[in-house]
Each structure stands twice: as structure tokens, then as C-alpha cells.
Amino acid sequence: MPVPVNFSTPIRLSAKERAFSQIQRWIIEGTLHPGEKLIDADLAESLAVSRTPIREAFQLLEVQGLVVMQPGKETRVTNIEKKDILKMYPTLAALHALAAEYAAAHIVPQQIEKLKSLNLQFREAIQNGEPYQAMELDEQFHQAIIEAADNNYVAAFSSSLQIHIRRFKYVFLKQPITGTLTSVEEHSAIIQALENGDANAAAAEMKQNFIRPMNELYALI
Q1: pLDDT > 90: percent of the chain
Q2: Are 1 and 38 within 8 A, CB to CB?
Q3: 102-130: burial string, b at 16+ Cβ within 10 Å, e else
Q4: φ, ψ for residue 20 (rounded to 5)?
Q5: Rounded CA gap, 194 and 188, in Å?
Q6: pLDDT tier for residue 213 given thresholds of 50, 70 and 90
Q7: Could you tell me if 175 and 131 are in contact, meaning their C-beta atoms sit under 8 angstroms apart?
Q8: CB under 8 Å, gap of 24 or more: what pairs does 70-78 form?
Q9: Which residues contact 8 (CB under 8 A, 6 or more apart)?
């Protein structure tokens, strides 16, 4: 199992947290491949920790669905398949549509302005051919709506599922998909609906913003 040597790690974390964060990142980015066997001794050496934090990290990663553990035998990165996209995106779309409904009732002018600013930066990243920046700004846009919804349950489930969405993009596409100006227009429609306090329209526009890319990605892969 090849383990990277040169990498940056978060500071002020426990050994378990640091191991969890780094291994999770390697799985999401595809450094640790789907189906790959994880050797705790190798990871412990690479991360300069004992094998106990590695094993504890494995347990947390299994809860997230990123690894499968067979106690006393082996731990492997979970596999992902093309058909998973048809399960992940509709689920995330439903969660974010619900967040949009909640946000329509709670959002304040400052949050609206933040969404407009993020969408403008998102447009610029697309026009400048910066796919990684565009993906990050798109996620920030949707996260801002999650925060405006002020619903911890929606936030928690959305965050968990977003990990798998990001992993899917990295593993299958090897790089983020370049956004399109259609996404910018959909974002604008979401903002307008939120500004009008129209929960139904906000939810509908949000679903469209997830389902359209899902169909495009599925056809592309």
C-alpha cells in the first residue's frame, strides 16, 4: 500500500483526530483507492503515531461508510460504482431542498448578500477556467444556505453525504467538474426565491441545481 510521505496535516489535534482527518482526505481524493487494503502499521509510521489511533480512526471511517473492517483480518476502503450517483445526488438534493425551505423563513439580508457574493465569485471561477475553485465556491454557496436553515440535523446528514459526493468526483473524474453558467443562473434563482421568502420555489430550484448535474455526470462517466 503506497502511503504519501510529503503532506500537510492539521495542527492541535489528538493522534486519533489527526489520523482520521488525514486518512479520510486520502480516501476522498483517491490516494487510497477503492477496495485497497489499509495496513495500520504503514499508516502509523507515515503519520508518526502508534497503531491504536489508526485503529480508532478506522472505526470512525467505518461509521462514515468509507472503510469496511473485518476485525482480526483486514480493513479495506469501500468500493464505489457509477450507479451510486443515482442514489447520492437525489438524497442530497432532498436534504438541500429542505434546507432551502427552512432558510426561506429565517434568512437575513446579510446572508443574502453573502450568497450573491459567492455566486459572483463562482461565475468568475468558471469563466476563468478554475474548476477546483469553482467546486469549492459551489460548496460554500450551498453550505451558506444550510447555515441559514439553522437545522442541525439537516446540516449533519448533508455534511456526511457531501463527503461521498466529493469522493465520487475525485475517484471517477480524477478532477472536479468545471461548473457551467447554468449553475450560476440556478443559484441566482435560488437567491431570488430566498429573498422573496418563497419556500416552495427555493426548494424546487435547489432540487434542479442537483438533479441536472447528476444527469450530466452520469452521462459523462
Answers
A1: 69
A2: yes
A3: bbbeebeeebbebbeebbebbbebbeeeb
A4: -60, -50
A5: 10
A6: confident
A7: yes
A8: 74/37, 74/38, 75/37, 75/38, 75/40, 76/35, 76/36, 76/37, 76/38, 77/27, 77/32, 77/33, 77/34, 77/35, 77/36, 77/38, 78/34
A9: none
With cell 504519501, the residue in question is: 4
Q: Which residue in 156, 140, 144, 148 sits closest to 95, CA to CA?
A: 156
The residue-averaged pLDDT of 67-79 equals 91
Task: Kindly state the greatest CA–CA separation across the chain.
Answer: 57
pTM: predicted TM-score of the whole model, two decimal places: 0.80
Residue 36 DSSP label:
P
Enter the C-alpha cell of residue 26. Answer: 486520502
Cβ atoms within 10 Å, residue 67: 22
Q: Give tens-digit pLDDT for 115-155.
A: 999 999 999 999 998 888 888 899 999 999 999 999 999 99
- For residues 171 and 30, what is the distance between their CA atoms, to the nearest angstrom? 5
Q: Are 74 and 37 in contact (CB under 8 A)?
A: yes
Helix axes 181-196, 199-220, angle to 10 degrees: 160
Q: What's the rounded Cα separation, in Å, for the pair 75 and 68?
A: 6
Q: Residue 118 is which amino acid?
A: L
